[in-house]
Amino acid sequence: MSRRLYLGKLPADTRTEDVSKFFDGYGKIVDCRVMTGFGFVEFENARDAEDAMTHFNGKNFMGTNIVVEFAKESRPRREPYNDDRYGAPRTRRPPGIRISVTGISRDTSWQDLKDFGREAGSVSFADIDRDNVGTGILEYLSREDADRAVQELDGKDLRGQPVRVALGEERGPDNYRRDDRERYREDRHRDDRRDDRYNSRDDRYDRHERSSYRRERSRSPPPPPWRRSR
Asked: Where is this region: Disordered (predicted)?
């Protein structure tokens, strides 16, 4: 049983002292770390950690109902797979059902979004689309969790702002490689056009040099000094 707890949906101004005081009385705390929006607390005894999780999960902390659950143990790093055609190896992510979340505030982090998605099921991936302001992405491993997320989370508040949640597409393990291939082809096309410009410029330079040489040859040399009239 784990002795380490994950804390989600923490207010942005949360301090380590606030968390330690909140869990005071449920056992000896050996480690407490607070980041923006989330944190971790570790107890000396696993039973104390379990009691704290049972009691505090969903409870109000500094005006927010926080998430308290066992922290996931670090997993061994997966071996990357190689694709010599497209450069460096990438780590394969398992397939998932994608959910689009729109209307999120600018100060929402990917961890906030993931905590929000966990209310409906097990989230395998979460990210904020920085190119499309107000848009985020969630992925669930099961279709059941994805459907539940659309039904239960659509219209709910995320960091004080209502958001829209819609079902996206089922992503296979190779989908994100397609984007890499598109960028690869675009880069190759751009390089080819650059080479064409350089070759064209070199041709113009050669023609200019040949023309200048012919003009120099066509000029009559000056007469020798003894032939000049006095």
From this structure: 77-96, 152-230
